[in-house]
Design brief:
Order of helices and strands of chain A: EHEHEEHEEEHHEHEHEEEHEEHE
Oligomer: homodimer
Distance between the termini of chain A: 25 Å
Structural class of chain A: alpha/beta
Largest sheet of chain A: 6 strands, mixed
CATH class of the largest domain in chain A: Alpha Beta
Number of strands of chain A: 15
Number of helices of chain A: 9
Shape of chain A: globular
Chain lengths: 296, 296
């Protein structure tokens, strides 16, 4: 079982993968949920960026992949939402990781001329950077751990990355917890190829809570279309945990909606709601039903 | 009348400011709309980033400011949405600018080692960069024109910026129209200080179309709350042009909704809908009513 995460070693996605696997084993919700990968047959493959995780799942070189989807400070990870639409993948799990960004460097704080990190991490530390490092050059990398690895090269460079990355790459933690809000969490999704259900059998039943994710493209010319489809869920008391719009990329003002709801498509009520929604929208893409994250 | 835009000279925001002022004069929708600033009393002030536009409006050194709010490829500009919530500003106008990103440099394509631009522009050219400049270092700047100015320093640097920036800074256009989709548009908002209505009197009536923007924070513990507030608009046949969620930053899974609707708060029907919505939500912030963009 090969699991793709953002590389190199020490990324938050790697942490998410390990956490998700542990949660999976701990939260065995009934025997049917206990069909996840076993430790001894696991290997991590480090990918350069989020696109690569999706591409390697498509070409079969990964069995599973983990990707960040939203953060409590900076919101959606646009590229992940776009890839979920473009690729034939199914979501089989989610997990939430506490993010504590640190400023790591070989040098001293006063020597820092360049700060490197993933664009999401830079955005999560926007106020910190503006107040403490105004004018310092910001460089983007494919992951926070990649930034940490690059920061080993020069003393004038610093990376925004995890405390673990400091250890991995022999950097000093100059400042910790530097994100703009104390509480910072990122939600990650575990994905597989849609035509590989055998890799990770769909879970029905069990006593844990499920989530279902869909993408809908409304009929633009019908006002109140979003209200109408939300009604299908409201009518059945199905709780929506998230509604996120994303440009259709056809024209400005034209959107897709990413909806997460509580429940499993194997439940009749969910099946019925989605069936009705499908008849009212221009396009509906089912992303999957998966055990909801439950803090241990 | 001092108008704040992203600087230095040649930014898309500057183009948006000029376009908005022109549209304002051309689309004089009744005499009441014709109270915009006059050409001869105008001056542009270049700001380093979006936060500065908001800060300078707050401290009174700007009368008006323009900020990007959404793009047809990359979606919302998170920082603008956050600032609209945090600052006491009122939206008095909008405009839409066609974006044609070019790769600008003093050097040749094969010499490029570093590409600079605003994070939104880098994201709009994501596929292009991955396919053509894999491994090249990406640096973020406060605006595309700032990237162009920096790219004048070394031949191994290139900027993603407008064709006009090439002229302004004496750079070569190595490649044009490099964004991932041919059609690329950014919507900009014109903002003023909320307690300075005199600067830019609220426009009531006239024969042009209006939009109204609000932010709502729902009551989390009430399922179906979003459906319920959308119902207030649907009931009155008020068309919503955009619904965007944004993290409340309190905890993951807790969101604010930014809603744009057709109509003016001076219309009774809109007033009534918003009054009803306000009674159902945890918080409602009125961002303003303003003439809707109309392509000339």
């Amino acid at each position: 079982m090969i699991i793709g995460v953002l590389g190199p070693k020490g990324s938050y996605t790697e942490k998410a993968a390990q956490q998700w696997l542990t949660e999976k084993r701990i939260n065995e919700c009934g025997s049917k949920c206990n069909n996840g990968p076993e430790d001894d047959s696991l290997s991590l493959q480090y990918c350069e960026d989020i696109q690569d995780v999706f591409s390697f799942i498509r070409d079969g070189s990964l069995d599973l992949g983990l990707v960040p989807v939203e953060n409590s400070i900076e919101g959606s990870v646009g590229i992940t939402l776009d890839m979920l639409l473009e690729h034939d993948v199914t979501i089989v799990g989610e997990t939430v990781v506490a993010i504590e960004h640190c400023l790591l460097s070989k040098g001293r704080k006063e020597d820092i001329r360049i700060i490197l990190s993933h664009p999401q991490a830079l955005a999560q530390c926007r106020h910190f950077l503006k107040e403490n490092f105004k004018g310092v050059e910001l460089r983007t990398t494919g992951s926070t751990s990649h930034a940490a690895r690059l920061a080993t090269e020069f003393e004038e460079m610093a990376a925004i990355a995890s405390r673990e990355s400091a250890q991995t790459y022999g950097l000093n933690v100059l400042l910790s917890n530097i994100q703009d809000r104390e509480h910072n969490h990122t939600r990650f999704l575990t994905i597989v190829r849609s035509d590989h259900p055998a890799t990770y059998p769909k879970q029905n039943g069990g006593d844990c809570a499920y989530k279902t994710s869909i993408i809908v493209y409304l009929d633009r010319d019908r006002p109140g279309a979003l209200y109408d489809i939300l009604g299908e869920f409201s009518l059945r008391k199905i709780n929506l945990t998230r509604i996120e719009s994303r440009p259709s990329k056809k024209t400005l003002g034209d959107y897709l909606f990413y909806v997460d709801l509580e429940g499993n498509t194997s439940d009749d009520i969910i099946k019925e709601a989605i069936y009705n929604v499908e008849s009212k929208v221009g396009m509906l893409k089912m992303l999957g039903s998966y055990p909801a994250f439950k803090p241990v």
